[in-house]
Design goal:
With about 280 residues, this protein is α/β, with parallel strands linked by helices. The protein has helices at about 35-50, 75-85, 100-110, 130-140, 155-165, 195-200, 210-215, 225-235, 265-280, and strands at about 15, 20, 25-30, 55, 90-95, 115-120, 145, 170-175, 205-210, 240-250, 260-265. The protein binds phosphoenolpyruvate. One of its GO terms (molecular function) is transferase activity.
């Protein structure tokens, strides 16, 4: 991915008809966590209406508390993949937290006719789970979005991404999702999107921004522009290649991260802002 002195291969790739590279831009708007089949369908229907072919759908959720909703796991996969096929979704970003999830996803995709593709997500809590990285790196079927570790150096996170490539999988995207600090930030995490060009300079990976987990709240300026929208634009102007962003039909009822979810009716404005920022890049 750019950190091995003898390796200068490109990391551009195409997956299920969608192109990924350091020059492309893909939006993955969707549910942080799958809760009901109705919400999945509402989300995918709206995405279809706005010509979106990618989404995010969380089935396996790594939660800080063991008493919080942990995700529906494999039980939701059949309807998520069925609905993705119905609404023309080509790629779903989905976090896995254990190697067994790979097989569950493979089986469910097969049983639902492989109508959609999955981008495996390694979350910030697993960035240095090296055994999981090696297993995910050994498979070539699915591309991987690896998030920066929220409490380690950038260098350590970039080396974590190399674990995937060193095992054979070079379809890797690097995700910025904010860093933990103890300074009582206005946001859930310290937004690190100024590192987009840095990562693109240091490696050949496409870079994803996750404004939802970085900002963590619907707070905004008095003129009504949400901070999530502001930082999304900043990340895109800085050269981001992918945007992972949470939406929900009823954020108050969301089982995970409701306070940071954008409303479905905000999707058109969000996509328009993405386009404007991209033109400014
Ligand atoms: C997520 O994208 O759902 C998530 C949990 O992100 P992170 O690993 O960045 O916290």
């Amino acid at each position: 991915l750019g950190r091995h002195k003898n390796d200068d291969r490109s990391t551009y790739f195409e997956y299920n008809g969608v192109r990924f590279g350091q020059e492309t831009l893909n939006v993955f708007a969707g549910l942080c966590a799958v809760d009901t089949i109705e919400h999945v369908e509402m989300m995918m229907k709206v995405l279809r209406e706005h010509d979106q072919v990618c989404t995010r759908m969380g089935a396996y959720k790594p939660r800080t508390s063991p008493y919080s909703f942990q995700g529906h796991g494999k039980t939701c996969l059949p309807y998520v993949f069925d609905l993705a096929g119905k609404y023309g979704i080509k790629v779903i970003a989905m976090e896995i937290t254990h190697e067994s999830h790979l097989e569950e996803i493979r089986n469910a995709l097969y049983q639902t006719g492989n109508a959609t593709g999955v981008m495996l997500q390694i979350g910030t809590r697993n960035t240095q789970n090296f055994e999981l990285l090696k297993i995910v790196g050994r498979q070539q079927t699915f591309p991987v979005l690896i998030k920066r570790g929220f409490g380690i150096t950038l260098d350590e996170s970039l080396n974590a991404a190399e674990y995937l490539a060193s095992e054979g999988n070079r379809k890797v995207i690097f995700g910025l999702r904010g860093m933990k600090t103890n300074m009582g930030d206005p946001h859930r995490n310290f937004v690190d999107f100024s590192h987009v060009p840095v990562v693109k300079r240091l490696t050949r990976m496409p870079v994803c921004i996750d404004p939802s987990h970085s900002v963590g709240t619907r707070a905004g300026s008095p003129d009504g522009i949400l901070d999530i929208m502001h930082v999304t634009a900043q990340g895109i102007v800085a050269g981001a290649n992918m945007v992972l962003v949470d939406f929900h039909p009823a954020p108050a009822n969301a089982l995970v991260d409701g306070p940071q979810a954008l409303l479905m009716k905000e999707l058109p404005q969000f996509l328009e802002d993405v386009q404007i920022a991209r033109e400014a890049y």
